[in-house]
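A common beginner's mistake is to predict each chain separately and then try to dock the pieces by hand. The better habit, illustrated here, is to supply every component at once so that their relative placement is modeled jointly.
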Amino acid sequence: MYVLPRRGFLFAGAAALVTRLAGQTASRESLVDDVVTANHILAAQDIVDAFGHVSVRTAPGAGRYLISRSVAPAQVTAADIMELDLDSKPVVVAGGAEKRTSYRERFIHGEIYRVRPDVMSVVHCHAPALIPFGITKIPLRPVYHNSSFIGEGVPVFEIREAGGDTNMLVETPELGRALAKALGNKPAVLMRGHGAVIVGKNIIEAVARSVYLEVNARAQAQALAMGARVTYLDEGEVKKRAEDPDPYGRAWDLWKHQAMQQPGR
Amino acid sequence: MYVLPRRGFLFAGAAALVTRLAGQTASRESLVDDVVTANHILAAQDIVDAFGHVSVRTAPGAGRYLISRSVAPAQVTAADIMELDLDSKPVVVAGGAEKRTSYRERFIHGEIYRVRPDVMSVVHCHAPALIPFGITKIPLRPVYHNSSFIGEGVPVFEIREAGGDTNMLVETPELGRALAKALGNKPAVLMRGHGAVIVGKNIIEAVARSVYLEVNARAQAQALAMGARVTYLDEGEVKKRAEDPDPYGRAWDLWKHQAMQQPGR
Amino acid sequence: MYVLPRRGFLFAGAAALVTRLAGQTASRESLVDDVVTANHILAAQDIVDAFGHVSVRTAPGAGRYLISRSVAPAQVTAADIMELDLDSKPVVVAGGAEKRTSYRERFIHGEIYRVRPDVMSVVHCHAPALIPFGITKIPLRPVYHNSSFIGEGVPVFEIREAGGDTNMLVETPELGRALAKALGNKPAVLMRGHGAVIVGKNIIEAVARSVYLEVNARAQAQALAMGARVTYLDEGEVKKRAEDPDPYGRAWDLWKHQAMQQPGR
Amino acid sequence: MYVLPRRGFLFAGAAALVTRLAGQTASRESLVDDVVTANHILAAQDIVDAFGHVSVRTAPGAGRYLISRSVAPAQVTAADIMELDLDSKPVVVAGGAEKRTSYRERFIHGEIYRVRPDVMSVVHCHAPALIPFGITKIPLRPVYHNSSFIGEGVPVFEIREAGGDTNMLVETPELGRALAKALGNKPAVLMRGHGAVIVGKNIIEAVARSVYLEVNARAQAQALAMGARVTYLDEGEVKKRAEDPDPYGRAWDLWKHQAMQQPGR
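With all components supplied together, the output reads:
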């Protein structure tokens, strides 16, 4: 029977693993590989489509982060990864000015890294199942153990309060700051009529939370559509689950395989 | 890690890009390539199935458009593309009569081009998520930033008002004119019990609007099924988003890759 | 750009085409090919899973039909096709007794062919979207032009009325006759807690009706879940659409390609 | 036309077949092959994602079971299969201590095998469609003939009653016993905010019940969302269906093919 070259992949997954366990002290090359992989995973898992982005802070406490230039996540390669500072301006590279351009909404990343030293990775996505919870007053609440982090709170960012009538994009430092404020100390924030931002203490956590935020949204919506009263995870359960040091490692390894099985999706 | 030949594709995407930025003055070959690509994208994105079609006007102000002969969108090749006039009659080619036959509902295209000089591309589709909004009195409204054009209005075409009991197909010039009238100056019109027609100032816009019309319909339906009050994009947001000169270029490039990854879908 | 070998497929699709236009006088080989193709299409379109079957009458007025021995539709090959009589007993082949066994529910086919001379092809499926309409009192009604045949009526077969408590399977001639009676002169019948049976004047019609029965069920369910009043196709529209001599030919050609792109699905 | 190498697969499927018909006396090699196949089927059918597991008892009456070490189901190979006793401790292999680690929730398996001598196989999954029925008071009931076993009862395990505030995981013998008690003599038990456990008298039954539990959940949810009264399979129908000696064999063969068509999914 055909078998996936799993062990080779585990080796390839070592960067993220080292990053995770050692507190983000992996080599530059490893970090770039992680960002590329995260882009492909988010695309293969249908969390991002042509739009959306993911970044990683270069080191604990650092005022720099890695993110792709402005292309669709499924198409990101190592050559596309740029280094930005907390003002979301490209860092001068090798004696010259950085000429590529990152995403218009890169300020989401810079402004969150600025005020959340615990955050090492940020995802911005438009996963369709999240939209209904951003446009109604129904709060997203945890109905699934792997989505327990939702119990810490997932507020909604109403861009009208921050900027009046806009083109809905967080494309200025000011809107980035307003979004970071709406996020507060939470794991994720929904954006009304737009999508969501999810953060993590490492890139595996940010990606896995993005996937399970969407899984939870679908299950909760289905339960509510049946017109039934729902039992959510309670505070104690949310806390107990947050004590798990590595809840998503196995998922990252599998998703990486799957993303490589269907490149460009 | 396997990487998509993205740059090659960007080059291949140049036709649409040039078309878009230069106001549709691309070569005939480029336009044909765009129509073929648009067909494959719409099929790969599940916007059309065996039925549905897409056309492009040959030049600004021209009374001609390119569309495939009558085959399923996933199977269209350059050799299938025909040139029709505003009466949706084939233009005589190279000294002889055009013997192939285009779609029975080609009048949708000709009659819209006749009364909408701003329209350079037309899509007709049966995307399943649109059907519920054509058969109920619930209006499709914008809940998602990439679908903001819905805020300009998406009326419903009731073919019974135009033609009494029909076979539901817009297969005469008269029904085409009635549909064009129902569309008015809007970006799209739903067809009761049938599907939708979407227009754009270029082929990228027409295709991308088709995709995001469907995304919006699913999200809005899900929100309504939860029984909640919904916050829609407001007029100011819709206007601000309409000012973006190239909101969908990145999506076209990705979708083209994906369509080529899974030919025939 | 990679292009499907469409023309070759059109040639391969000639059997069904000839069958359709000439009133089922195609060669035995062509009919076998049609049944195999129909099995693969129904599997690729997610209308059947491991279960379900499709048959074709050998000629107008004939008391014989072709159907596979008991294997999953995606796996049917020409060598699996058997010939059964109206008692659903295998016809003796080439001087010997037929030793293979067809489906336990083959009586669905034989008993319908017995009382419906207009029927040349029968599909039995378990498409998930049909289940809710078989277990509730909500009638399936036409909301989509390609599903207009639903307007001729799609009754529900309640096996309890015919056989009391059963294992839900139509595995006797008596239950087959009861099902055929419930079907009456309609294009399809739902089976409570089980699935559906769809008939056609040729194999293309039976297969296409199976696909569009499911599309209609999903759209109607979604409209009802939004709590809205629905406008169905009216009697006149249903009649006008029934006059189309070949509404599904283009779909058959595409579906055949797609089934061949993903064998075993 | 391309045809699946079905017969070869049927041969490869012989292990499970022998197991099934001969009452689980297949060779060790056959059992290992069955567990690997079951893992791949459950992944390909979207019943498990990165998480979830499946085990088989080594022989009728035996106090041992086979299960993978802790990896994602899609990635399990024969080399990953371990043998555990009813305390869910690894059995010493070939003179040495077993150094690999199985799933944290392996106690689900051991504690069920301990009290259910009729159970030869256990599946634990997180299939999304099951979540709404675990978090509401709406009982899962049989609406589909292939899901008739649900009529024997599918209780909900509320881990709070057994362990107060936990991390939701059944990762101790005590919680495993509480889950086994909640299961009782039923074919499956839902786990509130987590997933489900499904058992069978052989591995084919456990896997097929897992698939059809999910199919039933989707159909029932859809019917309830339409706000209609539902006719469920009654007691007599459930009993009659339970008499079928081999209802799922054809499905196993197909699913095995499909899992091999898309390795790593």
